[in-house]
Specification:
Blueprint: E1 3-7, H1 15-26, E2 30-34, H2 42-49, E3 54-57, H3 64-69, E4 75-78, H4 88-93, E5 97-99, H5 106-121, H6 124-132, E6 149-153, H7 157-168, E7 172-176, E8 186-188, H8 191-197, E9 200-203, H9 217-220, E10 228-231, H10 240-248, E11 254-257, E12 278-280, H11 289-307
Helix pairs in contact: 1-11, 5-7
Length: about 325
Amino acid sequence: MAVKMVIIEPLGVEKEKLLSMARAALGEQVEIVYYDTKTTDTEELIERGKDAEIIVVSNLPLSAEVIEGCKKLKLLSVAFTGVDHIAMDTCRKNGVLVCNCAGYSTAAVADLVFGMLISLYRNLAACDDACRKEGTKDGLIGFELEGKKFGVVGTGAIGMRVARIAKAFGCEVYAYSRTVKDEPGVTYVDLDTLLRTCDIVSLHTPLNEQTRGLIHAGNLAHMKKTAVLINTARGPVVDADALAKALEKGQIAGACIDVFEKEPPIAADYPLLAAPHTLVTPHVAFATKEALVKRAVIVFENVKKYLEGTPQNIMK
């Protein structure tokens, strides 16, 4: 008898292509139910998942109530790197395995870091606007990356790729991370030294009790007035109110923000939306056509390994 697998929300890959990938990986071992709409309604999510042994989910929050309501659930294949949107304690209590998709967005996120940074450094939006209004470069002189001190907080796969690209741009690269890696041209220092030293600081840490509020009013005050902060990691790693105030006071020069305390849409009165010299994007760092296909491959490989009795990418 086939195992029931529910894809509980769309994964950003065209339906027929996604189902074709699932069938190619899993054959007739699973009965696939696919939902092409998103919902945050608890009862609806329970209804969708109540008969499933396997649920595939992306960044849709799954609460303890939803996990408890899905009585047959044995595996959550999460099409995301982080799992802070999943009620992990309830999964552990109920014996539900949770697998993630680390690695699929490494190139995509690193690309956006430099896309946002160069856009901010070179005033690209304002330049486009000026050109369309018969303007000139007056007041739009930008900055180069070459020679800047570039700090990477968290040197996992994404952080290390960012560090290597920064080196290619001619930056002097510093890093702060729980694990020190032997990477030529990268100097590891403590967080305070990195924040005091660097012209650019890019965050690449997971969200946990140690990293929540890692960047706060106290250490923002130690950064250079010419510094730019980039967050493509997780919103709560940064105290958004403190960052907005630091930008308003001119304590730092700018910020590039892709992640927030909640998933977009973001309320119009969110403090960073009114902060000067701030570029914001609606959590798109991971979202490229290529990355979403890579992600689907890992999702279904995780399911395949589970069915074979050798689960992989297990989150504790």
